[in-house]
Amino acid sequence: MNKLPPSYVGKQLPAFGAAGAVGFLANISVTAIMKDSLGLPIEAAYLAGYLSALIIGFMICRHIIFKSATHSAGKQLVLFLVSSIFFRGAEYGVSLLLYKKLGMHYLCALAIVTCAAFFLKFLYYRTVVFRKGPQS
Length: 136
Known about the structure:
Elements: H1 6-37, H2 42-65, H3 73-100, H4 106-129
Helix pairs in contact: 1-2, 3-4
């Protein structure tokens, strides 16, 4: 596991949040440009927006936040993409569970799941995808 001083983690966590905000803005911007300016169907525009956010998020995590070279860039990209798909699916499922089975308000469920996922993703990316250590 990554053994870095708490002050270092304290710098990475806000940077991770900022990366999420940049990805969000990229997603919205690319989606709007693709649909409104280029006239693409919404399905293609959504896909382009999500892909841009994923790639930008990966690049920011790899080169700015975690500055890791433990795995090759290709292996990290695959780990990042697979874990992103898993996390999104889990977020969807848990949000529905809280709403449908526990009767929680849908926005409250979404907020709880999104906040929990933020910290879980940070820990997973930091300790698995972008961990520092011997080359694998």
